[in-house]
Each structure stands twice: as C-alpha cells, then as structure tokens.
Amino acid sequence: MAEVAETEGVANHEVAEQQNPFRFYTELRLVQLTGRKARTLRQLLGHLRRVPGSCIFYHTHESLLEHHFEKPVAHNDFAIWVAEALQEDALGEKLAFIDLRDFSTLRELRDAIIGIIENHMTRSSKVRPQHCPLGEEFHFCRAKSFMMPNGLVARTAEEFFKVLPSISNQSLYFHFVESRLRLGLQTNDFSVWLEGCGMPKLAQAINALNPYVRNLDELKADIVSLGQKG
C-alpha cells in the first residue's frame, strides 16, 4: 500500500495517485437452487450448518441488489421466513436486526445466525415445533457470480470521483458491499484504494457509510458527495 500522505482533499486529488489504477468491475449473477429446504426451525438449523457460504451471503445480502431503488429494511430472508411462515415473531425480530457490519467473514455471520436460533430453540424446548404450511418451505439458494471489468478506470482520486456517478449499481454492490466479506476485512474496495492514494480520512469516511440503511442510488450519491468535499 502506498505511503499515507500528510494532507488530503479536493485540492490534493490531482497528486493523489498510486501505481495501480482503480479498475471498476461489474458482475452477472446466476441464482441456483441447492435442493435444500426446511419446514421447521430444526431443519433450517441443520441446513444452515451445512450449506456453502454463498448461501448465507445470498440470503442476507441479495435483497440490497434486487431492490436497489427501495429504502432497505432491517431484515434478511431468514428473518422474513421465520416470522411469516413459522409465525415466530420474536425470533424473526432478533434475526432481522443482525448488524451485518459486525462481521468480516461469512463464517462469523453463519455462527451468529445459528447461535440466535439455537438460543431460541433452547428456551422454547417445551413448545411443540412449528411447521410452516405446505408450499411455504424455505428453499436455500446460492448465487454464482461472473466478474468482469466494465472498462472504467481511474488513475487518480480526482478521476475516481468523476467516474463513480456513471458506474452501475451492480458495480457499486460488488465493490462496496460484497467486497467487505470477499476481502475478509471490515472495509471496501473504494476505501482500500483511496487509502493507498494517501487519503485515509476520506477512505474512513466512505467506509463509515452504512449500505444497509440506504438504497444503492443513495449510497452512490453519498460517496460522491464525500469525494467532492474531500
């Protein structure tokens, strides 16, 4: 990583350059059924322990991309199914408010979901297990991603913020949301590169944006605004 510069800001963008330019990527996603399904919490828990990490990511993050124009709500597929199909409102609420920013790996996220369900089942051990109605089973899916450059390249921070408004939401999702777990760090591709440009404060400000309370259009606008302020 390049040495951190002492000053930063819009006036410094033209000199904030590192050897490796930022190459914007986008991705195409193919959603696949895994063949695993659950009608009870115990079945859901058993599958959660065995499905690949891509299933965990899909069911906790995919709605951000599918509904990029809507204001996000604090829930994921597991929370929705538990509350609606099993009528387990208390458990659904706990799963809904898992803060995805607390996790840097899918293993940590999986363990947190499993722990919440196990604790609920322990406290409810004397209650008859609830089965969902036929046709409302939880079907585990996974998404296979195909990454490719979109032809947009930035060699300086100034160029980066000029290009950013034109990238697709798929590209934004890949670099800002998916990258946090892909990198195994609590950061994103944009902040890593900007810090390498010698702009750590701007990188930290961008990384502090919560993608789970904004739609993708709002997230992009907020990142651009921070870049303009320097």
Structure report:
The protein has 230 residues and is α+β, with helices and mostly antiparallel strands. 47% of the residues lie in helices and 18% in strands. The protein contains ten helices and two strands. Strands 1-2 form a two-stranded antiparallel ribbon. The longest helix is centred in the middle third of the chain and has 18 residues, at 106-123.
Uncertain parts:
1-17
Mean pLDDT: 86
The count of strands amounts to: 2
Beta-strand portion reads: 15-25%
Largest sheet: 2 strands, antiparallel
Overall outline: elongated
Q: What's a concise summary of this model?
A:
47% of the residues lie in helices and 18% in strands.
List the helices and strands and how they pair.
Blueprint: E1 17-38, H1 41-50, H2 53-66, H3 77-84, H4 89-96, H5 106-123, E2 138-156, H6 157-163, H7 169-182, H8 189-196, H9 200-207, H10 216-229
Antiparallel strand pairs: 1-2
Helix pairs in contact: 1-5, 2-5, 3-4, 8-9
Tags for this model:
230 residues, two-stranded antiparallel sheet, 47% helix, 10 helices
